[in-house]
């Protein structure tokens, strides 16, 4: 299957595995790349030398293209970028910040740059900054999210109307049918996060993976907009947040409640009560932990069948 995304990244399928914190290490990235998609190492939860180790191991585990996701708010971002350039990583996804800051630097090094946005305005700014493609992520997505709560169904055609570079849809995509739907709306490819959290190769804790599989409709909620909007599974920590809101907590009090390493505690260490459990709404239709390669094949098989079915409508 060839299109603007497969051509841009040199991959077989226009499926990108999201660079999720505490889930997207070298094992997951290499497995997705070997299966024909684009694997991404999530640098947001890694110290610089840990990122170096993951890139080096990923290179040994696959000869296919892979990338690194770098949140722009990362405190030692300069060190991450130095390692990425030194180790000759060819693809970088940036998020949570101004794409102008690093796009020119990376492109001057011959690196393909993709920026993640949650609105038309920021998609246009990213294109103006010179990125090669855009990920438009809807409100359904897990982790940190847009404040406007624009759904993927609305966001993709709105962004498509205003940009000319390749567009990748994200948020609520875990199946081939969803992939077909967003491509009909104008996307050239998809970024899949939550479905890959529930994979054998994800570095997230087994208890968190099982919690994702067990999550039903309404199990998640977007919260903490005053700090950085994040979609969480409802647990004790989430209930503590709601109580804080009911008590009219200040921003500083919310920051104190969040504390440090809350996401690591939940998603990596498996504390299902006190930890931050980030996952998308689509968890409601994820029922099994599978190998990453099987997830890629399942999505592509369903996409092909659904595409054939549509011809009969």
Automatic annotation (TrEMBL):
Keywords: Flavoprotein, FMN, Oxidoreductase. The keyword Ribosomal protein does not apply. GO terms for molecular function: nitronate monooxygenase activity. The keyword Aminoacyl-tRNA synthetase does not apply. It comes from the Bacteria. Coiled coil: none annotated. InterPro entries: Aldolase_TIM, NMO. Transmembrane segments: none annotated. This is Enoyl-[acyl-carrier protein] reductase II. It comes from Arenibacter echinorum. The lineage of its organism: Bacteria, Pseudomonadati, Bacteroidota, Flavobacteriia, Flavobacteriales.
